Structure formats: structure tokens, C-alpha cells
Amino acid sequence: MQPAGLSQAGLVRWAIDALLEDANTAKVVLAVDDAHLLDPLSAALVYFVARSGMARVFASVRTGETVPDPIRALWTEELAERVDLAPLTESETGALLAEVLGGQVDSGSVGRLWRLSEGNALLLRELVMAAHARAEISESYGIWRWTGAPPMAPSLTEVVDTRIGNLQPDIRAVVEFVAHGEPIGLPLLTQATDARAVERAEELQLIRVVPEGRRVTVRLAHPLYGEVVRRRSPLTRAHRQLATLAELVEKAGAKRRDDLLRVAVWRLDSNTVDNPLPLLGACQQAFASFDMPLACRLGQAALDADREGRFDIAESVAIIMMFADRPDEGLAILDRAESLITDDAQRARWLASRGITTYWGMGDLKSPERLAAGASGLAAPRDRAWVQGVETIMRTHRNDQEGAHAVGLEVLDCAEATPGSKALAGSALSHLRAARGEPLRTLREVAEYQADSAQWRDDTPYFQLALEVARNTAMILAGDLDAVQATIAAEFSGLADAGDFSLGSGMLALVEAQAARLSGNVESAARLARQSLSRLASGQIFAGHAAAELAHALALAGDPAAEEAMADADRLHRQTVAILYPDLERARVWVRAGLGDIDGAVSLLHELIARLTADGFAAYEVFAQHDLVRLGFASEATDRLTELATSVQGALAAPAARHAQAAATNDGCALLAVAEEFAGLGMNLYAAEAAAIAVQALRHQRSPQASTALDRLAALRDLCPAAITPSLLTPKSTLTARERQIARLAAAGVPSKQIAEQIFLSPRTVDNHLLRIYVKLGVNGRAGLAAALRALASPDLQ
């Protein structure tokens, strides 16, 4: 018990003695959380314990807080090491979430949770727990996704309240205005509040004042502050503040492009909307940035506020509903809007939007014919071209090549066609050219259409999808993996992910999965394919393609779940995207091969090749013919691949032909050279497969290069460790059980004498065994053993 009447110094001395006495002979560890909150006497106690050397002190302090002098002395006097903990990075946040949730987490969800928590592990934990409690974080196809708004559970609110719970009225007003309007210009904020209160809020680290070019903007110091403030602000005060912000911007005149959007949201949230047209403009702007939830909200508000029955509002909102995976609602709006049409330009827009909704949203294969019939009644070539642009891409996706070419060329030859119509029709024809063997030309054409996108992006941002589909197809068929990474880093990718545009972000995850598979990283390919599938599963367009990619990646990894994924692909695939059949059927081939049915896989390949030949899909045929080589039937593919290499653009055709020739003639040195070609392209799985066959050929020939080939194979296998394909499954060694035992020990560096002692043989007998092992494995000595054993796929040699 604490003695009475002690001075402060006496209390500290008594506390130290009592602490050490309770510890007896054990080493004392004193841990203090939030040491910046200690009272002076407790802080002095911690300091003296550390200085005495009789205990080890662990203390945490929060950055930015005032720290008592005795606690600061812990590191300034080198009594303890100071370690500054940085916030979690986005990658670290993703890894932590995956560990906590027990599965992969959608990258968009990771990004949003990371931004909201700002890398603070405590806030991240509270966010996830609150999301779980509200059933707003769920698993789909093995991927966890967060689908709700920031969940503000009581525990999370309490954490935030420690910073903003008790504020003076003028400072609270500053925080509330920023919460409702961020990012808000500093001059606007000082007009709406008191300038001195703004300064004080910055001093208290409640807000951040950030120069952005010629403007100075203000944001809350932490994203979650806004969530708490907005939810606690009385509705009447929130409405007044939002209306004030809108009036100030309108009075000053909108100076930035996003001012229209911000004012519209403020008017909507303050219930002061008196004109639906600004809401429509803001809705279109949100759609152009692919913020689908906001676009839907603003569009529905514009529709509700429209008392005159404007066609433009109805058509715009309907197409947004389609791309937000709500096609039934979009179609109902369009059907009601037909009576509002006043001219052919509106009729063209209505026909195109209705066709898009029924074809891609509802899977109606007759939509192109209805679209063509409707276009025939339009007098102006410009209006017909608009509808025909949509028809071109429909027919392309349906794999009606003749029809697509006829309609698309008519659009491209039309002098009155808009840049948007030409981009739509042109990208569809470019997609076909990529499949037919001209992917490099496709990439050039798509870049040209992209250069003119400013003329149509704001009005019809969904046209960007047509360009992306053509570009993605061309990049994969050209074998340009670097281009895929550049696309993933481009503006559209960021907008689609941040804006919760599932169709766009899912499509991009799909092409990234294809690139990962080509690179040999089949685990990443499966993860990305699952992510793509979880985003696309609610729609009618690319879900089957994503499931097929998942099946392909799993099959290459020897995962039996590939069969289930293939069944999902067949269930989800729609004939509205029949042009994607080559990827679907190649996945089926590899699922069959993964089950060990090589003859069945080859039979499927023959069927696929016949279909590709009939369709003229030469670029896809390169992959299919090369699959024959990879499955051990090189002689069947050699002549055709040699022919294709002279006409098909891209990086794959020529090395694929050389791979076939070298494998058919069992030329180990040529196979090793082909492996280096594939490795140079980043196609490490193909490289490893060629190297594996080279090892077999060189061993059979007792070539001195067998050891070199084994080393190269081992290095390539390290780049695609999860892949299991027939080419990589080299025949099991004929080593006896004794030889396997000796090989393992010798590979580990154990001398012959010690091996002999361990297994009760003479050193000479061990050396004789080793000579036979070297011959069987095709190596020249101990130096090649480790690589030989590592490269072999025989489980009993791993």
C-alpha cells in the first residue's frame, strides 16, 4: 500500500522500489500506451525507471501531441530508441485485410479503406468491424468486397470524438463547412465562416490547407472526421450550410469544371433544387468520371425534378442505369420517354440507348436487326451513322463479321458522321482486325480514336469501353505485356476503380489476369480473374469471359477447382459476346489437360483451330497452334505456325513457330534459344516449357549443355513456381531409392565420405552411385545436381 505523507520525489522512489520488488528476480518491462497523456508525476516515474537501467521501457506517443519533458528525454538522452511508425501503405493495408478476412480483397475496396483509414491500423480495424456488422462487406468468387458507405459504429465514432468531440462553435462551423464542401477553396471558406476560426482549426490540425496550383484548398485532416461531423450535424444547419456554399459559388461564377458538379450536389443535399438541368449536367459529368453511384443519384434527382418531360434527361439517366447494372430500370425509362421524342436526332439517341440496353443489358440477340430497321427510317446521314456505330459493335460482338464490316464501313465513309460514331464503328472493326492477325494496327487505330475522345467523352463516356475492349484484345494477341501495365496505370483505370464502375474495372482486371497468365504468374492470374469475376458477375457482358480466365489459370496450376470455374464460364457466357469464344475454348482445352486427358484436350484444340480458321482469326490461331506444341504435338503445328509467322503481327508468332520446329526435331539447343526469346518477352511459362523440353532432348543426347539447360530451367521455374503443365512434367527419373537418397545428400553438399557413413556404404560405392546418377540426370557433376533435382517435377525428388 502506498505510504502516506511522501513527497513527490518520495512517491517516485517508493513506486520504483515496489515495482522492482514485485518483479523479484525477473527482468522488468514497463509498457506505456499513449505516454503523451501521462501526468507529470507518472511521466517522471517512467523516466527514472528507464534511467535506472533496472527495467526496459516501451512507450507509445501519438504524432503531433504535446509530450511531457520526461517522456521526450527517453529518446533525447538515448535511454530508449525512438522508432517512428509510418502509416500502413495501400499494399500493406491489402495484406493486412487479406490476413484478417482470410481471403483476397478487391483492390478497389482496399483503396477506399486505405484512404478512409489513412493507414491507421486502429481505424482500419473499426471500419472493417462496422462493415461486417452492417453486412456491407461480403465474399463473392473468393474475393472480399466492401460495398457500403463508410460505416460509423459507436466505437469508431468514439475514436474520432477524441479529436473533434468538443469544439468551440466558430471552429465547429469551420469543420462542418469543410465536411460538407471539401475540397473547398480557402477564400470560399473564409467567406462562409470566420477567418480567425479557420486559422485556429488549422492550428488544431482539424483541417489541412493545401496549395493546388494557383488555388489553395482546404480538406479535413482525416476523411473520417467528415463522416462523423456530417452525421451529427442537425439537418436544418446542414441544409443552410450547403445552400450557402452553393450560393457563394454561383455568385462568384463557376470557374472550375467540377464546380457544376459540386454545386448540383450541394443543391440536391440542401433540398434547394429549382431546375433539373444543372442536375443533368452534373449527372453527365459524374458519368464521364465513371462515378456511377453519384451519376445515378443525380440522374434520378433530375428525372424527379423534371416537370416538363425533357427527353434528354430521360435518355441520359436510362443509359446510366444500364452501365450501373440496372438495365431493367433503364429500359422502363426509355419506353416512357419514347413519347417525348421530337426529332430524328432524339430518335437516333433513343434507338441507340435502347439497343445498348436490350443487347448488352438483357442479352437480346435480335437487337442489331431492330436497330437497323430503326436506322432506316432516319433521314439525316449523321443520325443514321450514330445508330449504325452502335450496330457495328453489336455485330462485332455477335461475331457477325460480314454485317459488322458492311455497317462499320458505311459509318467511316459518312462525311457527316460524328467523331463518336466513327470511334465506335472504327474500334469495333479494329477489334476484328486484331483477331484476324493485325493487333499492332489495332493499337495504332485505337490510339488515333482516343486522341479525338475530347469530342465525345463528356456526352457518351461509355464509348470509351469499346476502345478499351479493342485495345485489351490487341495487347494480349500482340503479346505486349508492357502495354497492359501502361493501360492499368492510365486514367481510365483509376476512374473506373475509384468510381465503383464495376464493368470498367472488372474488364481491366480481366486483361491484367490474362497478362499475368502469359507471364507465368498463374497465382496472380487466378487472383485477378477472381477479382474481375466478382465485379462482373452482376452484369450480362464479360462475366463468362472472367470465369473462363479463372478456369484457365487454375488449370495451369493443377487446381481441381478449374472444372467448377469452367462450369461457371459456360453458365455465365452470353452469345452477345460470341466473339470471345477463343478464350473460352482455350480455357476448356487446358482444364481438360489439367485433368490428365491430353488426347481429349488435343481433340478440343483441333475443333477450335477449325473454327478459328473458318472465322479467319489468325491471331487467336497462333495461340491455339502453339498450345498443340505445349501439349507435345509439335509436328502437327509446325507448318501452320511457320505460315502464320509470316503474316500475323505481334511478338508471339515467330518464336511460337521456332518453338514448334525445335520441338518437332528434338533440337535441344534450338529449344534453349527459344526459351530465351520467350523470357525476353516476359512470357516465362512458355520459356520454362521450352527449356524443360530442351533438358530432355539434351539429356537424351548426353550433351554437355544439359547442365546449362537445367540451370536455366530451374531459374525459369522460379518465375512461375505454381505452374504445372504437361511440358513441365518431365518424365520421372529412373533413379533407384538408394540413388535418390544419395542424390539428395550430394545436392545438399554432403561429402562422399559422410554420405557413406550415414548410409553404411563405402566411399567408393557412393562415388560409383554418383557417376550413374550424373548420367541418368544428364549433369556433369555435383554442381548440376541441385538444379536437376529442383527442375524435375517428380514429387519424390522435390
Strand order of the largest sheet: 3-5-4
- Estimate what percentage of residues fall within beta strands: under 5%
Overall morphology: flat
Distance between the termini: 65 Å
Counting helices, strands and paired strands, the structural category is: mainly alpha
Radius of gyration: 33 Å
CATH fold node name of the domain at 152-272: Arc Repressor Mutant, subunit A
Q: Can you say what the CATH homologous superfamily of the domain at 152-272 is?
A: Winged helix-like DNA-binding domain superfamily/Winged helix DNA-binding domain
* Low-pLDDT runs: 793-798
The CATH architecture of the domain at 152-272 comes to Orthogonal Bundle
- How many strand elements? 8
How many H/I helical runs? Answer: 42
Residue share in helix: 55-70%
User: How would you state the average pLDDT, rounded?
Assistant: 88
Can you identify the CATH class of the domain at 152-272?
Mainly Alpha
Most strands sheet:
3 strands, mixed
What does this protein look like?
The structure is a single chain. The chain has 798 residues and is mainly alpha-helical. It contains 42 helices and eight strands. It has a three-stranded mixed sheet, with helices on both faces. The chain has a three-stranded antiparallel sheet with strand order 6-8-7. Strand 7 (207-212) and strand 8 (215-220) form a beta hairpin. The radius of gyration is 33 Å and the shape is flat. The two termini are 65 Å apart. The relative contact order is 0.04.
